Amino acid sequence: MQTVSKKDIPQELVVEIEKLSNLGFGIARVDGYVIFVEGACPGDRVKIRVGKKNKNFAQAKILEIVSPSPYRVEPFCPMQKVCGACQLQFIDYSYQLKLKKEIVEDAIHSISAINTEIKDVIPSPQIRNYRHKIQYPVAETKNSKRILAGYYKPNSHELVNIKYCPIQPEYCDSIIEFIRNAAKECGISGYDEKKHAGDLRHIVIRASHYTNKSLVVLVVNSSKIFDKLRVLAHRIFTELNNIQGVGVNYNPQKTNLILGEKTEILEGEGYIEEKLCDKVFKVGTKTFFQVNPSSANNIFEYVRDYISNNFTSPLVLDAYAGITAFGICVSDIAKKVVSVEEVKESVVLADKIIKENGIKNIELHNMDAGKFFEKELKTKGRKFDVTILDPPRKGCTKESLDYALKLTKGKIIYISCNPATLARDLKYLTEKGCKVDSIQPFDMFPHTYHVENAAVIRV
User: Which of 169, 225, 290, 359 has the most crowded Cβ, counting Cβ within 10 A?
Assistant: First the structure.
């Protein structure tokens, strides 16, 4: 079939939505030409307005839903259409899981050409109030100087002032509302991104599913503390319940990064406690930790059960370890766990967690994973029965994968939040002679297009 030119596509037309893209857009085709439709569900028949056209695809918005998909539902959040946080909330949850499985299948089969069966997505135990890390940008109104805090509209930096968010713990809404009002009362201004002016840039909350306590971090456009900020921090700590500690993060740079390098705890403790696999963890301001603890527990138990069922007293390498969550969760079935993490704050917390849980068989290294791999090969030369890789969204470098292969004699368990980079890295590993035994997706972020995966690789 001959593909039509973008010039042949009218500005307005009616299309059928076939499937969902890896970024959560509905996909329609007009004689082979792909159109990505925002806010569309597979099975929808919609009238669209076509926007930007490229050689092979176009982007479009819905003008009218001619006939809705049987899987289309009413979003439970009134802000869903204007807030960019929950892209798929208008789709029935059970169908979201099927779509996420398809996203993983498309990535794995098209990028890596691996024929390994993708298992059904394990659902999140909670589909509301699940998000335990909140990062709200802050601004202020032009005339009244009222403080605004919320999420940006999709594909913009236009702030939506969120008073109620049903995917985070309810008490977090109260914390945010208190800070809005108290900040203004203390004479603290909201941030103006265009002018790089104003005091308060972000409000960051780490909330504990285990204790219902929160660590609040005020990100300010300053390199040092000022009196009004101390007053605000004290009020948050003393006038609110559910507060474990209050800190300030200094970020005076003109940047899109939320956190600056330095954080100072002004009130209470600099961490919250979370429980996974019957172990209690400490989570700090810059600690990498899954935002959905109940779903994270599913992943950790899955990895622990797999290792327990397939190995006896294994030597385990936990790379990109964060606070060594995987290593700690498998420590009771391992002969020894060697943990590698480059963020010092995470390693310090891991050391505290290990001691408080009475664990004696974990060896901690505060190093870049690639440099540790190289050093390990040149010095001790240990061969690990199981290597757990949990890299950032960009995946592993080829060098790190090569080192992991040289260090592992049994299985690599690769945890990934990005199906595309997982597929890329699995392709590289299979080209090196590995076999992918299984891929298990988990829903860590209900109502979004994101999906977590645990791949078991035979070396």
Answer: 290
Percent of the chain with pLDDT over 70: 98
Name the pTM for this structure: 0.93
Cβ contacts of residue 311 below 8 Å, gap of 6+?
333, 385, 386, 410
List C-alpha distances in Å: 423 to 131, 219, 390, 415.
27, 36, 14, 12
pLDDT tens-place string over residues 140-172: 999 999 999 999 988 888 999 999 999 999 999
Query: In the sheet that 45-53 helps form, which strands lie side by side, from edge to edge?
Result: 12-16, 45-53, 57-67, 33-38, 26-30, 19-20
DSSP classification of residue 313: S
Q: Is the pLDDT of residue 420 over 50?
A: yes
CA distances, 292 to each of 132, 174, 207, 400 (Å): 6, 20, 10, 28
The whole-chain average pLDDT of the chain stands at: 95
Q: Are residues 253 and 312 in the same domain?
A: no
Q: What is the CATH number of the domain that holds 174?
A: 2.40.50.1070
Tell whether the torsion through CA atoms of 124, 127, 132 and 136 is positive or negative. Answer: positive
Task: Examine the residue annotation and report whether 417 is marked as an active-site residue of this protein.
Answer: yes
Number of domains in the chain: 3
Would you give the end-to-end CA distance of the chain in angstroms?
42
What lies within 8 Å, CB to CB, of 339 at 6+ separation is 318, 321, 324, 327, 350, 362, 363, 364, 365
Buried b / exposed e along 212-241 (16+ C-beta atoms within 10 A):
ebbbbbbbbbbeeeeeebeebbebbbeebe
* Domain CATH number, residue 315: 3.40.50.150
Query: Could you list the residue range(s) of the whole structural domain that residue 170 is in?
Result: 133-275
Residue 243 lies in a domain: yes
From the list 86, 396, 417, 434, the catalytic residue is 417
> 352 Cβ partners below 8 Å, 6+ apart?
282
C-alpha span between 191 and 199 (Å, rounded): 6
**Distances, alpha carbon 246 to alpha carbons 147, 267, 273, 288, 353, in Å:** 19, 5, 15, 18, 21
